Amino acid sequence: MHAARRAAGWSAVLGAALVAVVVLSAGIGPVPVPAETVLKAILEAVVVPTFAGGDFAWRHPFSFSLQQSHRAIVMSVRLPRILLGALVGFALAAAGAVMQGFFRNPMADPSIVGVSSGAAVGAVLSIVAPAVLPFGFGLETTAFAGALVTAFGVYAIATESGKTPVATLLLAGVAVQTFLGAITSFLLLNAGESMREVVYWLMGHLDNAGWDDFVPVAGVPVLPLFVLACFAVLLAYARDLNVLLLGEEEAAGLGIEVERTKQLLLAISALITGAAVAVSGVIGFVGLIVPHVLRLVVGPDHRVLLPTSALAGSAFLVAADTAARSGPQELPVGIVTAAVGAPFFLFLLRKRRVHEL
């Protein structure tokens, strides 16, 4: 109960911070929009179920007098991008917290088993040579498939006699990442006129976000539901992850099915990371810095660390993307996260605050 109360308290604070960042971000741009107007525009979009005369319908309970231009800017242009950034940040930070606990290493991040490298090969291939792909798969589908194939391939390489040593998994991930990096470099050499598009994707971006990213199938918010479902599974295994920090032999002695738990954590982390990378490109440091900072603040208990890292990751990426699109020239958000994350991480190293979990 103590962990649940701490998780709820910290999540409430970070959730409020996330809402504030979203509202402020939606008001920032070439056409400034007051925060009050942003809130009203968002409230106007809220729907509630009603039953009138036995018929079911959705009703908008709020209505305000707003400039149509402000309403369109907030709801059609800025909010989809902001919410996609929040969702990607949520996924990357959650996966980063799990990977750091899984490997018992604060230097671990969601791409440590090659997920980002696999997604990069898939995405670059779909841009440079789409004709070689089967069934006419698009960029996002190919990137997601590349991420999953790589993650499960690394796991298969590192597994022997039904067991997967963490050290072997880490080394296999490094080797596969290097190999896939070579493939990506070869594809870049043959990119031709597609070079700019490829490089832009590899830098990480959110600028093409639209409501179609959330509700591509019959009005069903596929991506948010998928990310939240993966997160729910990870959160359900937070206690088991805590026990794994003691070591695999100790965890087995305490009743944890070690190999099954490792398989599930790796699979779900790969799925949630692959989904994020597929829609946003390679955005670095979110899954590395955010969980590490939150661990210093809330402690190593993953029942608290996992939800707080996810919410903080959302707020961080929304803020970073706001900075990326607010200058004289819009930048890929991956540049901003790297520019902020790398110096901060070096600062932590200088202060000797990075240590084994």
Automatic annotation (TrEMBL):
Note the superkingdom of the native organism. Archaea
Record-given protein name? Cobalamin import system permease protein BtuC
**Do the record's keywords include Transport?**
yes
Q: Which family does it belong to?
A: Belongs to the binding-protein-dependent transport system permease family. FecCD subfamily.
Q: What does this protein do?
A: Required for corrinoid utilization. Probably part of the ABC transporter complex BtuCDF involved in cobalamin (vitamin B12) import. Probably involved in the translocation of the substrate across the membrane.
Transmembrane feature ranges: 79-99, 111-132, 139-158, 170-192, 213-238, 264-290, 331-349
Listed Gene3D superfamilies? ABC transporter involved in vitamin B12 uptake, BtuC
Topological type in the membrane? Multi-pass membrane protein
Summary of subunit composition and partner proteins: The complex is composed of two ATP-binding proteins (BtuD), two transmembrane proteins (BtuC) and a solute-binding protein (BtuF).
Q: Where in the cell is it found?
A: Cell membrane
The GO molecular function terms of this record are:
transmembrane transporter activity
